[in-house]
């Protein structure tokens, strides 16, 4: 399953070489956003929020083939969505 | 000039522009130990010397410029200074800290601050070169954009001089005119530029030769400075901050649903990528710049052009607040257009935050049919129309056409127009809100409500950092801040972002004391906890000890922060404010229209209860007035006497 990811905040350290803020690769079928986060080498606690194909998405969301994912960290000024709210929005 | 005390001079400059007299005044060193500097030192003079009945922009209103005992010391975060006065935008306290180099340079002339009163008959500027103080004519600067005035002054006084000035907007008494230091740093908020304009004081040029301040323990300070410089290498958060500056936050905040969009109607913006820090770096050749003695170097400098929009490096580049409020909050998704708006505001001397939110008020009202062409002098207003916004920015600064109404700020403009437009003015106490949607972080809502300067996001570190348990320093020595960094003051338990329970209010109150300490020390939040896991709370104590030689403690420093917050509150009470002014716009009690947090709203009962808990924790009464006991405990009992006298005038 092919996934394209935009990385913000400190997650940029997981960028593919030569493409700052970007990562592209294969994940096992039925993989979730949380699986992707761990695959990159990050953790649930570092990532503040995720969007899938332009829409906010909880970490349990199963990724479709060709998914475009945005991952963000908490930032100066803060990023609001905590776990509870992401779930409620789903 | 002999520096009598480690870290500070113990002397200020007094300037009376009505009489043209200047004089130095020695201060009791005990004032420095009590107040530390900055906001509190300014308030000491403002509360004593400004009669409560005085109106904003009257000649007798003092403009106070102040540093702290730490300013100018060779360690990151010490380049800031305070400006304070009576705000023409809110009628209460204007209190603003500005980065860059000017504050340190003023201190190198041999003074810790200055108090300027009166009104000159003709336009003037101040030239201070060590003990040489002159009031000089400024007719040739009048009406000039800030870069042109800067060029004239540096040509006259040398390239090493530092220039603090208002722009044409200040001369024209725009209520949110700003003050710029060397074109790239700002006293953005509260209309301090109009205070300078009202005094016909265009600029203050400083050049000092006392560049090595005497410190109590220079080696001790060097140890902390060296540790910090080393810790920034490989520090993921500070390196990112260095690379992208504050604009790094635009997309994360949009994805999280708290990026003000379309005048705070939505919390996520489809065009966020177009105005992101990454895009700015790529499209506008963003480069890093720094402030005095700072290794973080988060300032942006940009240049480029696209269509009708051209941006030069003269004014640096837009920060996060400006990008949101001239970007998403006006529906603009083009970083070049946003940077052009930033440049025009800075050339003319306008606060980018209040300008942006006053424009978004007008656009929403026009869209709703509450403002018409007859009001706007024929201009049609719509979202994502940056060319029109640029035209209006010029009109505001020169008080021409529709701009003359907008120059009053969104609240006063709405009151003049009527027609229920006030509910779309996103402001507190008359000052427009910055680029933070509070429905996703209720501590920020509380901060907006109780901020002594009106809508302001710098009351306390924002809630989302503290919604989960902290990581130990051993596991994660560098990175973003979290609860572990606050453990020295006993803040240990996570609290949800959308919450105003007792635990949250306690967190907010302590955080406000810490940020209040930054405001009295004139410290930059980007070098200390609680913005980054950088210099820690306990290292703050080490720094003050090394500079001053005082046997201080975190307890004393926290009290210094609290004292500043309470003095600011007392100042506003003296100028007619009440608890009724601690309110946020109605919009935030309604569900958010769109974005990640669509449907989220602040619970009004929780907000009201949180406000009362906050008053109680601050030692204020149910009406939000500091009690005599609290003022005495903070060793400023004399303010109680003034509050009593103002409450029952003879």
Question: How would you sum up this structure in a few lines?
Answer:
Chain A has 90 residues and is of the alpha+beta class.
Question: Which structural traits does this protein have?
Answer:
heterodimer; A: 90 residues; alpha+beta; disordered C terminus; B: six-stranded mixed beta sheet; six-stranded mixed beta sheet; 25 helices
Folded structure, characterized:
Chain A is of the alpha+beta class and 90 residues long. In chain A, 17% of the residues lie in helices and 29% in strands. Chain A is globular, with a radius of gyration of 12 Å. Residues 77-90 of chain A have low confidence and may be disordered. Chain B has a six-stranded mixed β-sheet. Chain B has a six-stranded mixed β-sheet with strand order 8-7-12-9-10-11. Chain B is globular. In chain B, 38% of the residues lie in helices and 13% in strands. Chain B has 25 helices and 20 strands. Classes of the chains: A alpha+beta (90), B alpha+beta (650).
SSE inventory with pairings:
The complex is a heterodimer of chains A (90) and B (650).
Chain A: E1 2-7, E2 22-26, H1 33-40, E3 47-52, E4 55-56, E5 67-73, H2 83-89
Parallel strand pairs in A: 1-5
Antiparallel strand pairs in A: 1-2, 3-4, 3-5
Chain B: E1 11-16, E2 21-26, H1 29-35, H2 38-49, E3 63-66, E4 81-86, E5 93-98, H3 102-108, E6 113-117, E7 124-129, E8 132-137, H4 146-157, E9 162-166, H5 168-171, E10 179-181, E11 185-187, H6 192-198, E12 201-207, H7 218-231, H8 236-244, H9 250-256, H10 277-283, E13 287-289, E14 299-301, E15 304-306, E16 309-311, H11 320-326, H12 335-348, H13 352-367, H14 373-376, H15 386-398, H16 403-406, H17 410-417, E17 427-428, E18 431-432, H18 442-450, E19 479-480, H19 483-486, H20 502-521, E20 532-533, H21 537-548, H22 554-574, H23 604-618, H24 628-633, H25 638-647
Parallel strand pairs in B: 1-6, 7-12
Antiparallel strand pairs in B: 1-2, 3-4, 3-6, 4-5, 7-8, 9-10, 9-12, 10-11, 13-14, 15-16, 17-18, 19-20
């Amino acid at each position: 399953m092919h996934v394209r990811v935009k990385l913000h905040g400190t997650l940029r350290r997981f960028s593919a070489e030569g493409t700052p803020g970007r990562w592209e690769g294969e994940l096992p079928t039925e993989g979730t956003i949380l699986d992707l986060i761990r695959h990159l080498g990050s953790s649930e606690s570092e990532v503040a929020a995720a969007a899938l194909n332009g829409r906010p998405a909880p970490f349990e969301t199963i990724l479709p083939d060709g998914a475009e994912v945005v991952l963000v960290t908490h930032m100066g000024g803060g990023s609001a969505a905590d776990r509870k709210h992401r779930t409620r929005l789903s | 000039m002999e520096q009598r005390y480690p870290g500070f001079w113990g002397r200020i400059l007094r300037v009376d522009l009505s009489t043209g007299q200047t004089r130095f005044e020695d201060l009791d060193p005990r004032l420095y130990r009590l107040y530390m500097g900055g906001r509190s030192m300014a308030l000491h003079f403002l509360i004593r010397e400004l009669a409560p009945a005085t109106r904003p922009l009257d000649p007798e209103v003092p403009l106070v410029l102040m540093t702290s005992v730490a300013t100018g010391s060779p360690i990151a975060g010490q380049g800031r200074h305070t400006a304070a006065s009576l705000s023409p935008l809110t009628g209460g306290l204007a209190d603003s800290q500005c980065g860059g180099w000017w504050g340190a340079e003023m201190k190198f002339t041999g003074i810790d601050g200055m108090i300027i009163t009166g009104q000159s008959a003709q336009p003037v500027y101040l030239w201070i070169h060590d003990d040489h103080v002159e009031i000089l004519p400024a007719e040739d600067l009048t009406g000039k954009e800030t870069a042109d005035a800067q060029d004239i002054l540096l040509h006259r006084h040398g390239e090493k001089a530092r220039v603090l000035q208002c722009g044409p907007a200040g001369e024209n008494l725009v209520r949110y005119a700003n003050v710029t230091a060397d074109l790239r740093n700002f006293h953005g908020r509260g209309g301090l530029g109009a205070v300078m304009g009202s005094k016909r004081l265009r600029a203050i040029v400083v050049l000092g030769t006392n560049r090595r301040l005497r410190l109590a323990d220079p080696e001790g300070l060097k140890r902390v400075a060296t540790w910090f410089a080393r810790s920034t290498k490989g520090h993921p958060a500070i390196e990112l901050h260095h690379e992208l500056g504050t604009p790094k936050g635009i997309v994360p905040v949009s994805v999280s649903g708290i990026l003000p969009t379309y005048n705070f109607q939505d919390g996520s913006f489809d065009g966020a990528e177009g105005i992101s820090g990454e895009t700015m770096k790529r499209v506008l050749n963003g480069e890093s710049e720094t402030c005095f003695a700072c290794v973080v170097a988060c300032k942006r400098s940009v240049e480029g052009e696209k269509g009708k929009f051209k941006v030069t490096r003269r004014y640096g580049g837009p920060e996060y607040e400006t990008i949101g409020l001239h970007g998403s909050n006006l529906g603009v998704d083009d970083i070049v257009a946003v940077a052009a708006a930033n440049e025009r505001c800075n050339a003319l001397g306008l606060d980018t935050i209040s300008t942006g939110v006053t424009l978004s008020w007008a656009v929403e009202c026009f869209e709703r049919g509450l403002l018409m062409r007859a009001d706007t002098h024929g201009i049609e207003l719509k979202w994502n129309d940056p060319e029109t916004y640029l035209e209006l920015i010029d009109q505001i600064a020169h008080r021409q056409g529709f701009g003359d109404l907008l120059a009053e700020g969104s609240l006063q403009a709405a009151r003049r127009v009527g027609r229920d437009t006030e509910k779309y003015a996103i402001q507190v106490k008359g000052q427009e809100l910055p680029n933070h949607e509070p429905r996703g972080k209720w501590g920020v809502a509380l901060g907006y409500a109780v901020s002594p300067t009106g809508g302001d996001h710098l009351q306390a570190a924002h809630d989302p950092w503290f919604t989960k348990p902290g990581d130990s320093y051993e596991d994660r020595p560098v990175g973003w801040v979290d609860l572990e960094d606050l453990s020295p003051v006993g803040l240990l338990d996570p609290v949800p972002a959308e919450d105003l329970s007792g635990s949250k209010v306690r967190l907010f109150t302590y955080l406000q004391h810490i940020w209040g300490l930054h405001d009295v020390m004139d410290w930059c939040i980007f070098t200390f906890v609680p913005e980054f896991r950088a210099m820690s709370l306990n290292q703050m104590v080490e720094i003050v000890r090394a500079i001053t030689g005082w046997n201080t403690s975190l307890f004393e420093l926290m009290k210094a922060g609290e004292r500043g917050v309470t003095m600011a509150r007392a100042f506003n009470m003296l100028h007619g404010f009440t608890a009724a002014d601690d309110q946020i716009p109605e919009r935030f009690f309604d569900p958010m229209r769109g974005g990640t947090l669509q449907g989220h709203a602040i619970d009004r009962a929780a907000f009201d209860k949180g406000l009362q808990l906050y008053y109680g924790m601050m030692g204020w009464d149910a009406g939000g007035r500091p009690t005599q006991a609290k003022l005495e405990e903070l060793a400023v009992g004399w303010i109680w006497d003034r509050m009593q006298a103002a409450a029952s005038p003879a």
